[in-house]
Amino acid sequence: MLAWDLTAVDRFGQDDDVERERGRGESGAADMHGTLAAGDAAFVLADQHDGAGVAAMRVATGGDERKLRVWAHVASDEPVVEQEWDVAGDIKALLWTEPNTLVSATLTDAASSELRWWDVAQQRARHAVALGATLGQVSAERGWIVAASDSDVYFLDAETGETVNKFGLGYPVSAASVNADKTRFVTGCANDTWIRLHSMDTGEVLDTFKGHHGPVHAISYSPDGALFASGSEDGTIRLWKATPGPYGLWT
């Protein structure tokens, strides 16, 4: 994993109170490299990982070697592993929900997946939620963890892990994101090219968005919920207006 100096961070799709002057940012990549910001390399984290999460003074990494590591990366030019846990699966995503709360998303050998909440201060796992055989996008949005697994979408309290809502949608869900007032959510599908807009009350499809030429595997509302972005196998990212009336360049 590579770490880079930067001056500002703006993560599209996160809550409005995201720190925009954090000083460092991160990314995870399937090529087993992650970047912290942009510029000159500050240091390298020697870790084979698929996902990374950043929270103030720490970076968490994990991947196919099934080890979750929390690194101290700001106080020293030579980052050290503060904590390390063995996990029962390949780590596909890591999310900081609070300075000392970390959520991991893993795929296990038993054709199942799970979310696990880690208390970094107490150095222990404190909660787990079993998901299905497949694992799509997992994100932290508006105080929730939103997870796509099999044909289901899970909405979980980001701090406690308690289930707020869950919908079985009847198609393989690859990604999901919730709007600003938590009344609607959009999804990608693993075997078609459509984006579907669902009601948070009933789960019913309210609208479909067509334009991609491959399945959508990443999706995220803007902080104000007025538009959302989707990333597809067709190699494009598209922006979609999700509010009536003029907005930005839309009329």
UniProtKB/TrEMBL annotation:
A cellular-component GO term for this protein: SMN complex
Keywords assigned by UniProt, alphabetized: Repeat, WD repeat
Keyword Repeat assigned: yes
Pfam families for this protein: WD40
Signal peptide: none
Domain of life: Eukaryota
Gene3D superfamilies attached to this UniProt entry: YVTN repeat-like/Quinoprotein amine dehydrogenase (2.130.10.10)
SUPFAM superfamilies: Quinoprotein alcohol dehydrogenase-like (SSF50998)
Keyword Methyltransferase: no
WD repeat coordinates: 209-241
Gene Ontology molecular functions: RNA binding
Listed GO biological process terms: spliceosomal snRNP assembly
Family indicated by similarity: Belongs to the WD repeat STRAP family.
Protein name as annotated: Serine-threonine kinase receptor-associated protein
Taxonomic placement: Eukaryota, Fungi, Dikarya, Ascomycota, Saccharomycotina
